[in-house]
Design a protein that fits this description.
Helices cover about 65% and strands about 0% of the residues. With about 90 residues, it is an all-alpha fold.
């Protein structure tokens, strides 16, 4: 899904993350967020950036164990909330 964010929203979210993690007070966090956003604009202004999602750590041993015990692919996928393609990818990587 492609979403467009305005620069003010990005700066506000960076500031909020800094404050929520108790790293800096709001005023200082806002200054840092503005510096970060300015740097991003200088380096990547006009470019389309892709920011990957956080990698998911799947319980591969448990998934493979259940499958080896005779549970169907459908049952295993449903139990662990994964798609069939993810199941087969994990199976091939094991």
């Amino acid at each position: 899904m492609i979403r467009n964010f305005n620069i003010e929203t990005i700066a506000a979210e960076i500031c909020a993350d800094i404050v929520n993690d108790d790293l800096l007070d709001r005023s200082t966090a806002q200054s840092v967020a503005e510096i970060v956003v300015a740097g991003l604009r200088r380096r990547y202004g006009g470019d389309e950036l892709y920011i990957p999602a956080v990698a998911i750590a799947y319980p591969i041993k448990m998934i493979l164990h259940d499958y080896a015990k005779g549970h169907s692919v459908r049952t295993v996928c449903k139990r662990y909330g994964i798609s069939r393609s993810t199941f087969y990818r994990l199976l091939n990587q094991a």
